[in-house]
Amino acid sequence: MSKRDLPLESDDDELAGADASAPAGVASPEDAGGTATPLLEASWRRSRQHGLEHDVETAAVDACGADALAQLVARNAYLLTHARGIVHNMYEQIRDSGSVVALADASAVLLECFGDSAFGIRAQRVGLRAGADWSESARGTNAIGTAATTRHAVEVTGREHFLDCNTLLTCAASPILDAEGRSVGVLAIAGDADSRQQHSPTLVGMATQLIEKRLFEADFVDHYLLAFHPVMAFVGTLQEGLLALAPDGRLLAANRRAIELLAIDAGLIGQLDFGLLFAVGFDTFCERALPDPTTVRPLDGRHGARHFARLTAPRGSAASTADIPRSAVPRRRIGRSRSDGSNANPPTLADYVHADPSLLAIAGRARRIVDKDIPLLILGESGVGKEHFARAYHASGGRRDKAFVALNCAAMPEGLIESELFGYVGGAFTGARKEGRRGRIQQACGGTLFLDEIGDMPLGLQARLLRVLQERMVTPLGASRSVEVDISLVCATHHDLLDAVRSGRFRQDLYFRINGLTVTLPPLRARRDLRELVRAIIAAEGEPAVRTLVSDEVFAMFGRHHWPGNIRELQNVVRVALALCGEDEATITPQHLPEDFLAAATNPAAPGLAGPATPHVPGVAAARQPTAAGEGEERESLAAIERQAIARLLDECGGNLSAAARRLGISRNTLYRKLGRARRPR
Fold first, then answer.
1. Among 11, 26, 171, 615, which residue's Cβ finds the most Cβ atoms within 10 Å?
2. Are 581 and 620 in contact, with CB atoms under 8 Å apart?
């Protein structure tokens, strides 16, 4: 089992008093005629602790009503979306065997049941139906409740059940765990105790693995996924290990099989990276694997183990060399984020209270429509923080614990956006996965769908999207049936959609469908909170124990800059400045700024600056002035040689700055400083 599994309760003295008061002859499952295992004995003790009586021949069926069941299903929409197909397929395999397939939530309340009519009637009488509570506190020892409590797979047959009324059953159940090892549900097969099926535990275990695999892939759909196994034939099967990786190679998550194969401590996930697990760098493996993501390639582990692996790029990105991640930005925040790569406390609209007054007013308007089924349309220039605002909107309402699924309509090739948005069934088109793929709309069911740059969506897809929004039903490519979806819609664009409507590039009916509330985020040059933004970026990107200041001269340059790239450009400038700051430097000065920004700052005609002033840049302007005849030319010649050497070495290292620094025999910070000077010939 995974190292993340909780230990079983096994203290023999934990309920000595309860055991003493138990009816004679039925103190354990062995006394009742069942099998005595530590797991079942601990469950029986818990059952007595809950105040249950063993000799109950008829138990009240505690099933919730229709409205409560609908709410329960809605709360578990994410699990149902990824598990339903597998559950139905599992039932088809055991049809006519006198069995029931049940899917429960993490607290052992049944969400769905499918069964043969002959046994199904008896199953309903004992409470095997949607909405029924099968937790140990309600039903005593039983496979579903005990699996939910212990987070271990278990089989309970006949008199191993605590309540006499359940002894007619045999049931095999397995908990369903997410990427962080948390229980999200329970899958079970139940039948008549007199006709126990030996293959049921195996079938439940395999189906659970498949559900967990789908959940893992869906959770990390926007990250790099590495599937691997020591046996090539096992890549692509339930036996493969799965790793989710950030663009810089940092390990975000690992499934249970990957933890076993790599023999790693689950508690270290988030602190490990690709280079610590395998003998080749992440950038190098990406260069080999991404151009042909269907090919399984050898991948040696750090300790000599040979694996075979296949790497999948984030959905929505083209698997080309242009998209291969580069580890050029120093990873200053390892260990400060959750293992899923998301913020443990995501920003909400309330966090805009200290923002620019115009942005504060916009956030206040958006807060009024949260959870009111009104679509939100966010306008603004590129880089003003439209996705950040959309995530804050999502985190401000009742859907905050559900999925936030983003799709950039401009970054997706027209031939792929349809399958990404609507999904497809197996064999829908050439190259499609045989098991099919759920689209972004279905992935967002119960949560929020964010369509960035919707103004670039092809006209043909606009018509399909309009139908989905009107009917709340989506039909995957190649499917004959539609699937009901429940989403909160947020769209964003930097285009003038009304102008696009007038020119025929955007459908008028779709415009009015997505234009529930329109907000326009101000560009950075119009905001009054520039200093607060800079300090927030430093706090997020800098070392936790280091207080980095910004000189007044730098703030003056920032205030004159036009910021055509808005907040995204500001983030890049501050990140580079932090990287170029030495360990003994506590203040960002002009010499720490990127070369292209300095070029604009020292050039009055540069389009990036609004004002004509050209500030003095210590250490940079002086370096350009020769101190003696011929010394300036010599310095320029040496600088050119250095630039050429760095560029050549970076090409040899595939753009990996860490590898280049090691070959040069200098620190990475030193190389960053040289890059700041060498980025552009003077």
1. 171
2. no
